[in-house]
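Quick one:
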Amino acid sequence: MKQWKKKDLLGLEDLNKGEIELILDSVQSFKEISQREIKKVPALRGKTVALLFFEPSTRTRVSFELAAKRLSADTVSFSSSNSSILKGESLLDSARNIEAMNADLIIIRDSSAGVPCQLASQLKAGVLNAGDGFHEHPTQALLDLFTIREKKGKIQGLKVSIIGDIAHSRVARSNIHGLKKLGAYVTVCGPPPLMPAGIEKMGVEITYNIDEAIEKADVLNILRIQKERHSVDCQIPSLREYREQFGITKQRLKRAKRDILIMHPGPVNRGVEIDADVVDENSVILEQVNNGVAVRMAAIYLLANR
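Output:
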């Protein structure tokens, strides 16, 4: 089996097909650990993992913390509200101080794109991107890829439609990079104001017809409307109008393939981008969350033992 050699995991754009597959192939053994009565192994005993979350997060932060603890790593958590950044210290100086305490891996989420890359270039410790601005969210894409492969048995040749707020979604970008490198065909669909200029250069097909996106897909990956990231000039219909034009409903799914796989990275706005009954009866959202812990265990383990 190939060995992981990179110091950092900053995005799927930086990885080749073999590196992505190496992570995915490592996940199953870590998933088995999470299914045991005692969900802990001594794989990273003596290692220290620092979690720097400077943007609101629930699933990702908890998932990373659980992953590190199940590997027996020591964890320390920081947020902007309880760190020296409030006193004027720069993020880089904060990270250097944490590294000086012999942290082996720094996991960071920040609202500004490029922050993990900046830290990685200045630190000897490994850096794992837990989401940076509109840029990338590599572990979310990896857990999505793992879930697709687990459910469909493959990724090569599948048709995946990503629907929603493409312009403001780091999840969409990471998924596109990963899916394309593993041989999937990707379509993006959403309102024109939420479709980034030049997205076709990533090798995806664009459609503004939700029924077309559903009919052709083996997999639907639904994104929420990220109003907290919208600029003043980003005009979209009301949420009611959005649901009427792009929402995933039982009625619309009558056009879908019988074995359609419905995914969502969360948090879910029920009744907006996806109806509640579709979430509860047709989606694999909770399985994605479960797989997320195993994927993050694999990523932390590979980086800490590179």
